[in-house]
Amino acid sequence: MSNYTILRPDHHQNLCVDMSRSAALGDEVSQVLTYPLEFRDIQSCYPIFFTKDSETGAFMPVALLGLNTGQNLFMINDAWDAHYIPKLIERNPFLIARPANANPNQTSQPKLSIDLDSPRVTEDRGEALFDSAGAPTDFLENIIAMMQRIHQGLEHGAQLSQALVAHELLEPMTVNLTLADGESKVLEGFYAIAEETLFNLSGEALQTLNQAGFLQPIYMAIASFSRLNDLMARSNSAKQQRAESL
Q1: Whole-number Å distance between alpha carbons of 173 and 170
Q2: Confidence (pTM)
Q3: C-beta neighbour count of 246 within 10 angstroms
Q4: If you ran DSSP here, which 8-state letter would residue 124 be given?
Q5: What is the spatial order of strands in the sheet that 170-178 belongs to?
Q6: Which of 39, 99, 139, 169 could in theory staple to 217 by disulfide, Cβ–Cβ 3.0 to 4.6 A?
Q7: How far apart are CA 229 and CA 245, in angstroms?
């Protein structure tokens, strides 16, 4: 369970955040939300798929980190084995929140909140959030800037998903993989760019997508599928290491 609260220097001056990487700190996840402005970096390491919210029907892009639920093939010996860590991983235990009593018809300033129940939140180790005078530390200032970029990126991502639906550019995708020991893996419940539909779009539609900043991330998402080979290689290596340790 999470316990998010608005971050305030008068309440949280003594808090620190452990930003190291480990399963115990919540990094053992098989997928994480991403957004178009991050696709260039994401596609260099991870496959990008889309998932559909069962309640709202909205589509959301995710970076795939493992082939099994709760498996992160990039966590090796409490270290992240990739040159880029997804921002929605790095942001833990922080979250952008709007005041509960905000007027939906008015623009309200997002607030930075922190999960007080996160194992990353401590008072004796990690990065301090405030100095002795209650001013944000450089660490916290960098977190605030990152969270603002994430907030903007997720809003842009929602617009991309709406455009993909409008142009019928998402289709269900089932991925069948066979590992080195013969084990079969089936990835279901994901959506991917409908490449044939994309290739048949009119010049006007392509221009509209490009002007909105969507065309490049669309092709980045397609290119990211090649990263499935790396996930298979990592899974094969992990299984071999487990077998050798028995």
Answers
A1: 9
A2: 0.91
A3: 4
A4: S
A5: 31-33, 59-64, 48-52, 184-193, 170-178
A6: 39
A7: 25
Query: For 9-64, how does the pLDDT look when each residue is reduced to its tens digit (9 = 90+)?
Result: 999 999 999 999 999 999 999 999 999 999 999 999 999 999 999 999 999 999 99
Full residue range of the structural domain in which residue 227 is found:
4-245
**CA nearest 95: which of 146, 59, 137?**
146
Residue 229 has pLDDT above 70, yes or no: yes
Rounded mean pLDDT, 138-147? 96
Q: Which of 211, 203, 209 is nearest to 167 (CA)?
A: 209
| CA–CA dist 161, 126 (Å, integer) | 37
> How many structural domains is the chain composed of?
1
- Reported as a single tens digit per residue, the pLDDT across 178-222 is 999 999 999 999 999 999 999 999 999 999 999 999 999 999 999
Which pairing describes strands 94-97 and 111-115: parallel, antiparallel, or unpaired?
antiparallel
Tokens representing residue 178 in the block: 């066979």
pLDDT band for 245, please (50, 70, 90 cuts).
confident
Cα 36 from Cα 153, distance rounded (Å) = 7
Report the SS3 class of residue 91. Answer: coil
